[in-house]
Design a protein that fits this description.
It comes from Toxocara canis. The chain is mainly alpha-helical. Helices cover 59% and strands 5% of the residues.
Length: 725
């Protein structure tokens, strides 16, 4: 029996039948008019009796109307939260950038700000115009206008996310170093990134407008102003899904490219860091704010697309599960907007870092706050001085406890030795270090962060850098050391004193810098002018000179009995402190292996000879683990003298005589350098780079083809004379 109303058709399925309702009607028997849904739910006294007709069917329709309105309300809550969040974030971004000049403007912030405005329009329009009967919109023209506005705004936001991804990808690829797209060459055009902004508006506007014009009669339905997925409107929705989905996939692809570049191309990361260190050495936020956007752009593209498609489906299907999914996407996108705003704006992330330093334990908290350039101790001294002093006391007690435990261990070891060797002389016992009076060393800056006049470490470095650059400018003009120091003092210190800003910390910083300059500046005026020495006191990285041509080679190797070609990549040059730390770890392992023979004692060492004269030889050898001093030479050797195993009996090789070696103590010959290097960091980088160059040369020389070619030339007797004959 057909129980459907006149607004539906009974459709028989395998084991049951259901009503296929006409457009604008809902319910099990198609007796609920969508235009009356909100009137029915808002009227608490309405029942099947008040509407007339089939009471049971109408009561069922009323229950379904309440479910539809409840699902509608869930999505409305999510849209309201997203609209408010995007609007508030846009206002905060505008207030943060209103007082900055053009040099502080970042295209990433520009794209993000425009995207937030598009999200406000998209979410606000969806909140107002999802159902035309909610606020009595005109179904014909008003609904089409909001359909165009909402879908255009969502598409613009998706396109701006792709522009953000492109900016990050260029940043990680060292194609675009900073906000103005000025690379390492100063002749590149500035502000060219603005070309990417208009297409993000023009392309979605034109695409959505063309889709509406070509599908004018099948755009909206009475239940939805933002699109329907029915048979006649599906081509339009499919075109919009292709547009937004393609932009989302493009953003993901660009983020993947940036991630792979960061992971596999160390040279690009070094060039990027080098550029910012040379141009903004004390403003690290310029690079970090763009680098942090990589995960946010990836997640934001997915959430933005998910919000658009889930809201459209929830509005069209009016289904509670879809409404829940849409609300989850909208709330996640709201949280994402807040997290991205805080993480990518240094002015806001500063407080997150400070709270982390205060609330988290020392091993979990950040070590540096980049906006005000403060260390963790300086932040604690400023915000939590009691905790800072408490941690210093705990560190002092831990050090004293460590020394005490070490003394107890030495005492126990001596007791074990005396039990084993009762007649052991005191000379062979371990010495317990005497504590003695506390040793004090002069500090270049004796003030603590909690004391008045303290200047943060980063600010002291910036002040001394400026003084050094000004000082070398005077030195290059022909002034001697005293004259240059007096000129620098009159330009900086005296000027500060005149206006009453000079503090005790400033005087201490100046005193440390002046003493260092007088000690290290050993260059005559003729030498400075002859060799055009720029500044030997600053450890700036050297410009990159290598290209892809000389950083990659294909070598032939033997692998499991077969010869295979292997791509060998040249290690990037050592320029950054993070590279120095990694190389230092490897260097310490090598140094430990090289020092192992020197750490041992041999029978021909003077101290061992002296001890064996007064003690039993076997006891001395067992306690000190004395090694053999020499071995016999082979019988076919010309010299019959034994080979010495004691490295102290042989001359030092070149390994120990490199003046650039970390920790080297000895003379530094500066005569061979046109630009002398006094900074130990520069010498350390130069030392590690020489090691890398040597390893690169050995990797090329170990090529099997190279070795076979040499063997062939030698076997044929070829020499230079054969080629010139």
């Amino acid at each position: 029996m057909n129980s459907c109303s006149e607004h539906g058709i009974c459709v028989e399925l395998v084991n049951h039948a259901k009503c296929a309702c006409d457009e604008g009607w809902r319910g099990a028997t198609c007796s609920l008019n969508i235009s009356q849904i909100f009137d029915i739910v808002n009227n608490p006294n309405i029942t099947g009796a008040t509407l007339g007709g089939d009471y049971e069917a109408i009561d069922e329709a009323i229950k379904e109307a309440k479910k539809v309105v409840a699902a509608f309300g869930l999505v409305q809550v999510g849209l309201g939260v997203l609209t408010a969040t995007a609007l508030l974030s846009s206002i905060v971004m505008a207030s943060l950038t209103s007082g900055s000049d053009d040099s502080d403007f970042d295209p990433q912030a520009l794209f993000q700000s425009h995207r937030l405005r598009a999200v406000v329009l998209a979410a606000g329009g969806s909140f107002y115009a999802r159902n035309p009967y909610r606020y009595n919109l005109d179904i014909y023209y008003g609904c089409r206008f909001y359909h165009w506005l909402i879908n255009t705004a969502f598409s613009i936001g998706q396109c701006l996310l792709m522009a953000e991804a492109a900016n990050v990808e260029k940043m990680f690829g060292s194609i675009q170093f900073n906000k103005w797209k000025r690379g390492q060459r100063s002749d590149e055009a500035a502000l060219t990134y603005l070309i990417r902004l208009p297409p993000c508006y023009i392309a979605p506007f034109a695409f959505v407008t063309a889709s509406i014009v070509t599908n004018w009669n099948c755009i909206c339905r009475p239940s939805s102003c933002i699109g329907s997925f029915s048979d006649d409107t599906f081509p339009l929705q499919l075109a919009l899904v292709a547009l937004n989905g393609g932009l989302m996939l493009g953003s993901i692809a660009l983020c993947e490219s940036a991630y792979l570049t960061k992971k596999n191309c160390a040279e690009a990361e070094i060039r990027r860091c080098e550029y910012f260190l040379l141009n903004w050495p004390y403003d690290l936020c310029k690079m970090l704010s763009v680098e942090k956007n990589l995960p946010f752009v990836l997640i934001g593209s997915i959430l933005h697309f998910g919000c658009w498609i889930s809201v459209a489906l929830a509005t069209d299907k009016q289904d509670t599960p879809l409404a829940v999914v849409a609300m989850i996407f909208l709330l996640l996108y709201s949280a994402f907007i807040i997290a991205q705003l805080i993480a990518t704006r240094p002015e806001l992330f500063k407080y997150v870092t400070i709270f982390s330093m205060i609330l988290l334990p020392k091993w979990m908290s950040p070590e540096f706050e980049f906006f005000d350039t403060l260390t963790r101790n300086e932040v604690l001294a400023k915000w939590k001085p009691k905790r800072y002093l408490k941690e210093k006391e705990e560190e002092q007690r831990a050090k004293e406890n460590e020394d005490k435990q070490a003394a107890i261990k030495i005492q126990r070891d001596n007791e074990k030795l005396l039990q084993k060797y009762p007649n052991l002389p005191p000379l062979l016992l371990f010495n317990i270090p005497d504590k003695g009076p506390p040793q004090t060393f002069p500090s270049p800056f004796p003030l603590l962060p909690t004391e008045d006049g303290y200047i943060p470490e980063w600010n002291r470095m910036m002040m001394q850098r400026n003084w050094t650059e000004n000082y070398m400018g005077y030195r290059r003009t022909g002034m001697n050391v005293d004259e240059s120091i007096r000129a620098t003092k009159s330009a900086f210190v005296d000027a500060d004193d005149y206006i009453g800003n000079l503090t005790l910390g400033g005087l201490l910083t100046w005193n440390d810098w002046e003493n260092r300059m007088r000690t290290t500046d050993i260059f005559s005026e003729d030498r400075l002018q002859k060799h055009k020495i720029n500044n030997p006191f600053l450890s700036e990285p050297e410009p990159s000179s290598s290209t892809l041509v000389d950083t990659e080679v294909s070598a032939l190797r033997v692998c499991i009995g077969e010869t295979v070609h292997e791509q060998i990549l040249k290690a990037p040059p050592i320029k950054l402190n993070m590279q120095v730390r990694k190389m230092t770890e490897k260097w310490e392992e090598t140094l430990k292996e090289r020092n192992a023979p020197f750490d041992a004692l041999y029978w021909d060492d003077p101290i061992v000879i002296h001890l064996t004269e007064s003690c039993d030889k076997e006891m001395v050898g067992a306690i000190l683990n004395v090694q053999e001093a020499e071995i016999e030479r082979p019988k076919y050797a010309q010299s019959k003298r034994p080979i010495s195993l004691n490295p102290r009996k042989r001359p030092l090789d070149d390994f120990w005589l490199d003046p650039d070696m970390p920790g080297f103590v000895g003379p530094h010959d500066l005569s061979a350098f046109d630009n002398p290097v006094l900074d130990s960091n520069v010498r350390t980088r130069r030392f590690f780079n020489k090691i890398l160059e040597r390893q690169w040369k050995n990797a090329i020389d170990d090529d099997l083809e190279f070795q076979l070619a040499l063997l062939h030339l030698r076997s044929k007797g070829y020499s230079l004379m054969n080629f010139f004959a």
